[in-house]
Structure formats: structure tokens, C-alpha cells
Design a protein that fits this description.
Blueprint (H helix, E strand, L loop, with lengths): L4 H35 L13 E3 L5 E3 L1 H4 L7 E7 L8 E6 L5 E4 L8 E8 L11 E6 L7 E4 L14 E6 L4 E7 L5 E4 L6 E6 L2 E7 L19 E10 L4 E3 L5 E3 L8 E6 L4 H12 L1 H6 L3 E6 L11 H10 L5 E4 L2 H15 L9 E5 L4 E7 L4 H9 L5 H7 L16 H9 L3 H41 L1
Parallel strand pairs: 6-12, 17-18, 18-19
Antiparallel strand pairs: 1-2, 3-4, 4-5, 6-9, 7-8, 7-10, 10-11, 12-13, 14-21, 15-16, 17-20, 20-21
The structure holds calcium ion.
Amino acid sequence: MAQSPGQQEAERQEAGAADGGAQRNKYFQGWLAVSQLLYEGASWSGNERHCCFLNTRQDRFANVSAASGFDLLDDGRGMGLVDWDQDGDLDVWIANRSGPRIRFMRNDAPATDQYLAIKLVGTTSNRDAIGARLELHLAGQDKRALIRTLRAGEGYLGQSSKWVHFGLGEARQIEKLVVRWPSGTVEEFSLLKPGCRYKLVEGDTSRQLSGNRAINLNAKPCQSPSSAQARIVLSNRQPMPDLIYTDYARQPHRLTEHQGRPFLLNVWASWCTPCVQELTELAQSQDRLQIAGLEVVAFNFDGVGNATDSDPLDARRLLKRIDAPFHEAQGTPLVARTLEMGLRYYFDKAEPLSLPCSFLVDRSFRVAVIYLGPVSVEQLLADTGILTAPPAAWQKASLPFPGRWAIAPLEDSQAAIASSRQDSNPQQHQNRSGTTWTVISITLLFLTLVVSLFILRWRSQSWGTRK
Ligand SMILES: [Ca+2]
């Protein structure tokens, strides 16, 4: 049967919508695939070193990445330029997708050259003077002006300081500064001195000298922590999985047998030299561990996974040799997989279980601290000592350096964390939002009914009173 033009158009629109939906699904599937790759440890652009190019003022640039110290292997995303310590040179903040998430690079180049810093205040233009173009003319120099443009945003989600910075080199005198305001007005400012910071207001050619105050940053260069050794204090402790295992006498156990007192779950193997050193130190400090009320559950992984040439008997002999009075536990592929899933859950990153590795578990059977690599007895005793600290003190102790929380840590529940991660899926987010709005609608309807009944009852009472 022949279709009407209207039916044909409706079918075309429907087919187009279906195609659009399929395209959107492919788009989201693509992002999910990329996210999964990153989650599994792949890098988006982490193997591309940062670059820094020096303008030689001869229509050429020189690659000074290595000499400047910028050739980092970070997975960078954005950067901002600012004279953070106000000593006349530009410093750099770098934001990374991977760790370290943020870097501050203080410019420690010899401060023999001069500078000029300008803050613009628009009146007829926008107040921040975004879009203004500044031309700086130096006395006794060639006729080429130094030009800067004030922008709102640079790079990905980045914004440099709105203080416009000029490096003057060896110049010691400024002829003039021409400001082309976004409103179209052009103004010239003279009598500016090198080595100063000025606030310039649109329509007012008098300049305001802003105080110079060099800030002494006491920070020292730090070494990036090794990924092979780390101490991670969970700001909100998470439940420890209940592991089922056997001891060396093949007697079955559950890890929850240790609930009610703090213990260290240590993952080790006899072929792992750092593991043996760590266990030896723990064994030699057994008296101190006992006084602290800390038990050690030593999970041995000899003969598990790729270590097929090792034998659990080796582990048993070694524990006897070092006289380690630990609770012996024989690891299995399932236990290894469970611990790996736990680490994936805690860190939102999929990585294989590496040895040695330890979990400090509190008396409520919650993981409090994770140690990747060996942990010293002193550190272990210190962490055990603060297991009973109030939540605020514990969260403070979980920070790697002093600071305050910009966003409060997640609630101490798996549901809250799962819910927060659900936002990464737009479709699920829509569904959850829809549920929320449905709940709100039902609540509002219920409240409306209650209020209506109350008003009706009040009016009937009032009428009754009048009678
Ligand atoms: Ca500086």
C-alpha cells in the first residue's frame, strides 16, 4: 500500500532518530572502552614527555625541555603560569590526569633580568579586561614591542594569573605601555619602572603601584614516591573481605576469626627477598607487637600463580628458621584474586597483587592502612597506635601532608561510594535522577494531601465554632 508523504517523513525521522541513538551508543561505548583501558593501567598520553620551547627572538624556537626540567613523563592536562612567590619570574602549576595530580614548579633561574607585571581593571570593558592586548615598548631597544593578550582560560580547564607578566631581559627603561581595551579604547601609560607591579584602570591613565612582596616558599624539591612502596591510609576504612583458607596443617579457617582485635594481613612468599626481610624484622619485634595488641596473619603464596617452582614447605621451613610466631595461612589463587579485587575497589585501578603487601585491619574488621612493599616496625606500631583515634583525627592522619578537606570524604559505606561512581555513566545518572525526582514528586503529593486535609479540618472546625 502506498504511503502518504506524511508517513514517509515520519519514518525517515524515526530512522534518523534510531541512527542518532546508535551513534550516541557507539560514542558512549567508545568512552567506556577508553575508560576501561585507563582503569587497567594504560595511559592516554603518559608516554609523551612535556615540552618547553624557548623563543630565541630570531624567528626560531629552541627545545629546552630537558634543560628546563619540564620533560616530565606525567599524563599532563593543563597548566597555569603565575609568579607564585612574587619574585619577578613566572612559576608553573601543572595538572595531571595521573599522579602526581598536581605539580608546582618554582622558577629558580637566576633573577638578574627585570620584569614588569600589570593588572588591568576594566570600567567600560569587562572588569577583568579579558581580551585586552598590551604592547610594551622598551627604551633603547629595537622597535618590536613585547605583546601580551589577556585571556580567560588557557589549555585544558586551565587559567593563568590575570597579572600580565613581561620578562624584560637586560632592559632597564620602559618607554611606554599601550593598552588596547576590549571596549576599543586605546590608552598609553608611561613612567613605568622595571621590577614593579602596576594596577591600571581603564579611563584613568594614572597608574597604581602595587606593593612588591616576595614570598619565601620553604618547599624543597621532593622525590616522586616509588610505586613499588607506598603507605595508603584510608580516610574512611573499608570492610575487609572474609577470606577462607587453610593453615599449614590443612585446617580450614576464616579471616573473620581475627575480628575483634587489630591484625596485620601480610602477603609474602619465600622467594621474595623483601618479604623475608620484612617478616624477619616483624618476628624480631614480636614482643613490641604483642604489647601493641597487634597480631600478624602471614599469607604465604609459594606455589601460587607463576611461582610454580616454589613450595609451601619452603615457607614453613623459613618461618621456623626465623622463629616467626605468626598465624600461618596458605594463599590460594582465589585469595589472591579477592585481594586484587579489594585493591581495585580501594584505588579504582586494576593492578596485579605485588609482594610484599600488607593490610592493617582494625578491631571492627575494616581495612585502615594498606602497605605496598615492606613496612617498618616503627611505622606499623605508629599506625596501630592511632587506630582508635576519633574519625576527624584519623582523616587528618590520612592526608600525606597538612591540609583541609575541600570536599568531605565519602561516607563510610560501600553504597555511597558505588553511588558516587555511578555518576560516570550518563544513562544510569539519568535513571537515578529520574528516580529521585519521582520520589520528590510523590513526597510533594503526599505533603499536599496532608496540608489539604489539615486546612479542610481547620476550616470545618472554624465553621463549627462560628455555629
Ligand atoms: Ca616566581
